Amino acid sequence: MKPRTLVLGLGNVLMTDEAVGAEVIRRLSSDQTLDPSITCIDGGTLSFTLAAPIGDCQRLIVVDAAKLGKAPGDVRVFEDVEMDHQLRSNAKSVHEVSLSDLMDMARLTDSLPDQRALIGIEPEFIGWGETLTPAVEAAVPIAIQRIHDLLARWDSE
């Protein structure tokens, strides 16, 4: 039996490139070949209600816009301790709760997923708007491929 995997997309769909996590989830969810052990959730702009699904999974992949200091649309994968470090060093959030807070809650309740990764996509523009910029739009299939690559590697370990 495959481990329960949560793929969590974060972001505000009304704020251009901030919506990239939600767009990745929308497209990934429509993949008919996706294993039933994988749950896709659009986490929006975060909430404490996400603590339960995070605590219930053994593997977690989070997709979000992330200021990485790279070119717009650049996709970077942070795994396990590297993910923890990225969240701690960039823990500022304008939302009710940050992803770092949710990971700390999982740590405190001994429910931190065994395998976890953050797929960060460099935004070009974050402001009012309902479509991704071309560079970030082009990154969506790359991010989906990185998700598939992670899952394949984790399945083989």
What brief labels describe this structure?
alpha/beta, Rossmann fold, 5 helices, 157 residues
Sketch the major β-sheet.
5 strands, mixed
Oligomer: single chain
Considering DSSP H and I runs of 4 or more, what fraction of the residues is helical? 25-40%
Low-pLDDT windows of residues: 92-96
In order across it, which strands form the biggest sheet?
2-1-3-5-4
| CATH architectural label | 3-Layer(aba) Sandwich
Q: What structural class do you assign from the helix and strand content? A: alpha/beta
Can you count the helices? 5
**Level-1 CATH class name:** Alpha Beta
The rough form would be described as: globular
Could you tell me the mean pLDDT?
90
What fold name stands as the CATH topology?
Rossmann fold
Whole-number count of domains: 1
Account of the 3D structure:
By secondary structure, the protein is α/β, with parallel strands linked by helices. It has one domain (5-156): Rossmann fold, CATH 3.40.50.1450. The protein is 38% helix and 18% strand. It is built from five helices and five strands; from the N terminus they run βαβαββααβα. The chain has helices at 20-29, 51-56, 80-89, 99-108, 134-156; strands at residues 5-9, 38-42, 59-65, 75-79, 115-121. A five-stranded mixed beta sheet has the order 2-1-3-5-4, sandwiched between helices. Helix 1 (20-29) crosses helix 5 (134-156). The longest helix has 23 residues, at 134-156. The relative contact order is 0.25. Mean pLDDT is 90; it is low at 92-96. This is Hydrogenase maturation protease.
